[in-house]
Write a structure and sequence with these properties.
Blueprint: H1 2-19, H2 22-37
C-alpha cells in the first residue's frame, strides 16, 4: 500500500503542478504524508478488531443429541 500511495502521490502531484490545481496538490501532499509516516485512514494498525477471548480457559464438553422424524 505504501508503494501504491507513493505512486499515486507522485502522479497526482505532477498533474497538480501542470494544471496549477491546489486541491490536487493538497491531495498529493496528504498521500505523501501517509507514505512518509506509514499511517492510513485507520492508523498504523489498520482496521483490526481486537481478538480478546474471555472464555479461553472455560472449555466445556458439549454433547449433541440426534433428532430424527418418524416415518
Amino acid at each position: 500500500m505504501r508503494f501504491l500511495r507513493l505512486f499515486l502521490s507522485l502522479m497526482i502531484g505532477m498533474q497538480a503542478f501542470q494544471a496549477h490545481d491546489y486541491f490536487l496538490g493538497l491531495l498529493a501532499l496528504v498521500l505523501l504524508f501517509q507514505v512518509a509516516t506509514n499511517v492510513g485512514c485507520c492508523g498504523p494498525a489498520g482496521c483490526v478488531t481486537p481478538t480478546n477471548n474471555k472464555n479461553e480457559g472455560n472449555i466445556e464438553d458439549i454433547t449433541f443429541e440426534e433428532v430424527t422424524t418418524k416415518k
